Amino acid sequence: MTIWLCATCGVEFEAELPPECPICADERQYLPVGGQIWITLDALQSTRKATVQEIEPDLYVITVSPSVGIGHRGLLVRTEQGNLLFDPPGYFDDDLLATLRELGGIAAIASSHPHLTGLSISLSHRFGNIPVWVNGDNRRWVMRPDPVIQFWLDEAEPLPGLKLVQCGGHFAGSAVLHWPGGAGGKGAILTGDTIGVNTDRATVTFLRSFPNRIPLPERSVRKIVRAIEPLAFDRLYDGFSPGLIAEGAKESIRYSAARYIGWISDAIRDPDERV
Ligand SMILES: [Zn+2]
Ligand SMILES: [Zn+2]
Predict the structure, then answer these.
(1) How far is the CA of 72 from the centre of ligand 2 (A)?
(2) Ligand 1 centroid from CA 37, angstroms
(3) Which residues, chain by chain, have CB under 5 Å from ion ligand 2?
(4) Ligand approaching nearest to the C-alpha of 38
(5) Residue 27 falls within a domain, yes or no?
(6) Mean pLDDT, to the nearest integer, of 101-106?
(7) According to the model, what pLDDT value does residue 46 have?
(8) Which of 14, 52, 129, 194 has the greatest count of CB atoms below 10 A from its CB?
(9) Ligand nearest to the CA of 24
């Protein structure tokens, strides 16, 4: 069966392709110069390579080069109850499938939000139709409906000990994955675009659109902080290498949120600005 995906976001589609990818036609994304481009997984096979690298014990990053779609990283969390693939890539080949099997296979798939769902459904089918967890508030952005999709709201536990937590913001159903075993037992969260690590590697941001630089209202930023506050974690990985807050991640989120709200609410002023 031919697997079609949008070249710009790397999300897979049903065989009946629309004129444009709704995810990329949305104001949070963009269409390429010249308009929509569709590609097939087969056509990518000879031109891409996927690598898997352990970045801390039981956490593996999947990198596709040259990148496909938005160019995010997939993250595989290994647990004794099975492995979870978070934010799957828009590419796989036989080598990658073999490597994933050597690591124990995949028992569940989840994404932070619609931009980073990649080849979720195809991967589920390759691993015995395992559940693909999709937040119910993102239902209209599902481009390849399939019985393996498991809709959830607010919180879900796709594997024992691993928790999906809905934060909203970038998308109404934007989520993070809480992994209590991360960071040597201090806990880690995987955030995709729900919380993005800044270039300073110390602070984070929250945006309705990253490529089009659309901010979020104070209400949404406060909701994200409220959602992560009860979770025990010290480390944060976002969806794009090297996006990492290695320690003090919760404090970084609190500080960054207060600063963000200060600027958008006019509570902070540039000291050089003449009043
Ligand atoms: Zn797209
Ligand atoms: Zn996004």
Answers:
(1) 10
(2) 9
(3) 115, 193
(4) 1
(5) yes
(6) 98
(7) 87
(8) 194
(9) 1
Residue 275 lies in a domain: no
Which ligand is closest to the CA of 36, given by its number?
Answer: 1
Summarize pLDDT for 45-75 with one digit per residue, the tens: 989 999 999 999 999 999 999 999 999 999 9
**pLDDT at 15 exceeding the cut of 90:** no
- For 147, other C-beta atoms within 10 Å of its C-beta total 10
74 CA from centroid of ligand 2 (Å) = 14
Count the domains in the chain: 1
217-275 residue pLDDT tens: 999 999 999 999 999 999 999 999 999 999 999 999 999 999 999 999 999 999 999 98
Residue 251 Cα to ligand 1 midpoint, Å, equals 34
CATH code of the domain in which 52 resides: 3.60.15.10
- In this model, does residue 13 exceed pLDDT 90? yes
Buried b / exposed e over 97-120, threshold 16 CB at 10 Å, is bebbeeeeebbbbbbbbbbbbbbb
Instruction: Tell me how far apart the alpha carbons of residues 137 and 220 are, in angstroms, rounded to a whole number.
Output: 15
Looking at the CA of 17, which ligand is closest?
1
| Ligand 1 centroid distance, CA of 109 (Å) | 20
- Long-range (24+ apart) CB contacts under 8 A made by 29-35 are 29/115, 29/209, 29/211, 29/212, 30/211, 30/212, 32/7, 32/8
Q: 275 C-alpha to center of ligand 2: Å?
A: 37
Tell me which residue range forms the domain holding 128. Answer: 4-264
In a domain, 274, yes or no: no
* Alpha carbon distance 115, 191 (integer Å): 13
Q: Could you tell me the pTM of the whole model?
A: 0.97
